[in-house]
Structure formats: structure tokens, C-alpha cells
Design goal:
Length: 205
């Protein structure tokens, strides 16, 4: 049996202990990871509460103020010959409108060639910032934003309501506008105007 010299054995044992210590987390490092985990959890909870706190009804004004039958009739003045018209109602300085742009861009990218998209801009105070917005306000449509309005080529109102929905001001999704475009194209029966005024989400009034 061969024996290692005493000096070699001591060196080997020292290296082994050092390597073992390197693989072990110190108490200080463990506390750092614990505190980091607590901080991340608190941030996620805070973000969730913030999003939940931004949710409000799309229409905060009394519904009785708006006459659905009149809006259906007046929407015909927005129609375009042989084209479905989709109008996004946005508001300057509104983070909700900025977030909804992602969903709006997706709708535009996936639409057929017989659909025209236009933007109606409201000022931060809710006044008309372009001619199309002035026309909508004159017709009596609510100034909540971001909103969408879909009119068939025959002048029938297919939809008015939120452009998108979401948990709060950091997400935007929904299929309301997509379904309204399908109805206006005759893909799902009659147009049947849909007033989606009771959704909860991130909206500027």
C-alpha cells in the first residue's frame, strides 16, 4: 500500500475543505436572497393592487342620457360607401389610450381590405381635438376613451364601447371590435348594434 507524503495529504485536505466551503451559502448571502424574494413579492402585490384600483366603468355618466335608437340612426352619417368604418376614439395624455394602441394595431393588421380605420382624438379635457371627434360629440356619443365605433357599409351601427379591456392600465385585450367587424361583414348574421357600456377597465373620462 502506497502512502502519500504528509505535506501532500495536508494540501489535499485543505483544498477539499476550501471547495466545500465555496459550495456552501453563507448566512449573509441567504438573507440577501430572502430579502430579494420578499421585495419581489411585495412589488407584484403592489402592481396587482394598482391595476385593480385603475378599473372603472366605461360609461360613468347616466345611461339614460344617451338614446341608443338615436345613436343608431345618427351613425349612418359616418358610413363610407362600400367600406366598413372602424373609428378609434382616443384621448391625449391618457395612458389607457396608449396601452390600447397595441390592441388597435393588432386589429388593423388583421383586417380585410374592405375595412377603413380612422382616429378620433379628444383633448385631455375631453373636447374634440380633430374634426372626426367633433362630429362624434355632436352626434351624441360618449367621450369615454379608448373607445371604438364600427359602422357597416350600409350605415348600420355595429358597435360602440371600449376599444379593449384588461385588468388595468398595463394590459389591453378583447374581441368586441373584432366581432363587430365580422357582423358588419355579414359573417355572423345581422349587424345588431352592440352598446358595450358596462365594461370595467382602464378608461379616461
Amino acid at each position: 500500500m502506497a502512502f502519500l507524503p504528509l505535506g501532500v495529504m495536508e494540501s489535499t485536505l485543505t483544498v477539499s475543505l476550501i471547495n466545500k466551503d465555496k459550495g456552501r451559502m453563507s448566512k449573509k448571502e441567504a438573507w440577501v436572497w430572502v430579502l430579494l424574494g420578499v421585495w419581489l413579492t411585495a412589488m407584484l402585490i403592489g402592481l396587482w393592487l394598482l391595476q385593480d384600483g385603475t378599473k372603472q366603468p366605461f360609461l360613468i355618466e347616466p345611461v339614460a342620457k344617451f338614446n341608443e335608437a338615436q345613436l343608431r340612426d345618427r351613425a349612418s352619417t359616418l358610413a363610407l360607401a362600400d367600406r366598413i368604418r372602424v373609428i378609434a376614439i382616443k384621448r391625449e395624455g391618457c395612458m389607457c389610450s396608449t396601452v390600447a394602441d397595441r390592441h388597435w394595431d393588432k386589429i388593423v393588421a388583421g383586417a380585410a381590405s374592405d375595412v377603413q380605420f380612422d382616429n378620433a382624438w379628444l383633448s385631455e379635457s375631453g373636447d374634440a381635438a380633430n374634426d372626426l371627434a367633433a362630429q362624434l360629440l355632436a352626434l351624441g356619443f360618449p367621450a369615454s376613451a379608448p373607445a371604438a365605433l364600427v359602422v357597416s357599409a350600409n350605415g348600420e351601427l355595429a358597435y360602440h364601447g371600449p376599444l379593449s379591456t384588461g385588468a388595468g392600465c398595463y394590459s389591453a385585450e378583447g374581441i368586441f371590435v373584432d366581432q363587430a367587424i365580422d357582423r358588419a361583414q355579414g359573417k355572423s348574421g345581422s349587424v345588431n348594434a352592440s352598446f358595450n357600456w358596462f365594461e370595467l377597465g382602464c378608461y379616461c373620462q
